[in-house]
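Worked example 3. Consider a protein that binds pyridoxal-5'-phosphate.
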Amino acid sequence: MKKIQMVDLTTQHSHIKEKVLKGIEELIDSSAFIKGKAVQEFEKELAEFLGVKHVISCGNGTDALQIALMALNLPENTEVLVPSFNYVATAEVIALLGLKPVFVEAKEDIFNIDIEDAKTKITANTKVIMPVHLFGQCADIDSVLDFAKENDLYVIEDTAQAIGSVYRKKGTAGTFGDIGTTSFFPSKNLGCMGDGGAMFTNNDELASKLRMIANHGQKQKYHFDCVGVNSRLDTLQATILRAKLPLLKEYSQKRLEGALYYNELLKNNDKLTTPLISENSTHVFHQYTLKLAEGINRDEIQAKLREREVPSMVYYPIPLHLQRAYEYLGYKEGDLPTSEKLAKQVLSLPIHPEITKEQIEFIVKNLEEVLG
Ligand SMILES: *Cc1c(COP(=O)(O)O)cnc(C)c1O
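Given these inputs, the predicted complex is written out as structure tokens:
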């Protein structure tokens, strides 16, 4: 059996190496490294895959979130609702732009934003909500959209972990709100070989604004209409993504099969709760995240697994409202109890399209032994 890794990019790329090398060779011959043809072609192909009118590529998933917020021209005192049980990128860009992150609870079963809690946090200054489709399945978009409409909020969906996930057969993650964003970081479900990101929208005006901001605030060369940034997807990365996009459905299917196999093997274990696949959304399992029962020493479990060459990770150990960087916002322990509880109990096991049944069986056997 091959050594188990959280992600196995080497195996993934060994299958597409020829195709990628051919693309890179063509690129070297043309040497159009910035804004080459592959960039527009990839944007078109991704738009078609997602079922959205516009895709605007950029340098990484965090830039995508920042540019999305910049495109909304928000007043200085704007408050932005964002989940606390989350990766840092959304909160970070809100703060960087001088706006105020307001942290919202997660739903304990699907780890995604809890609109009932968001309702208690709205003020006259709330202008945006940023649901994050965590671990690979959609937040409850219908309730997000209803809430946003009632309160006149923009919706920016962070789809970095859930690209291709489908909500209630209505459409794919990232295409429901005003703007969706994603990341092509190598370990994401659709990863390139470096950094990359994209924004999606069905709104023509926003699309043109996003493109302008990502390009230094210019539509016409050397005519700067707004303060922008420099954020581009390299032609090289677009070339690689064009080779991988046709495989994304298959990658997602294999991730799901792996997760279902874990769920089946672990279903009777009362020391943990396996991840729930909500009836509202398909799940593309960017992470396979279970919850350990209360009172189990997670550090100890991880250490014992490590000794047995079973990798595991904690996404995420500290909710954002308790991180030192956001101390200035005045949150304290107990303010978001569900997010705090999740942060204490979650444990992510290896999941990727290349994982084998044998590897999953090995992981489960060892996990059950160390749990005792
Ligand atoms: C990876 C990730 C990002 C950021 O993507 P980068 O390309 O690394 O900037 C943002 N949000 C979430 C939820 C992510 O998982």
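Take a moment to read the result before moving on. The domain at 9-246 is CATH 3.40.640.10 (Aspartate Aminotransferase; domain 2). The chain has a mean pLDDT of 97.
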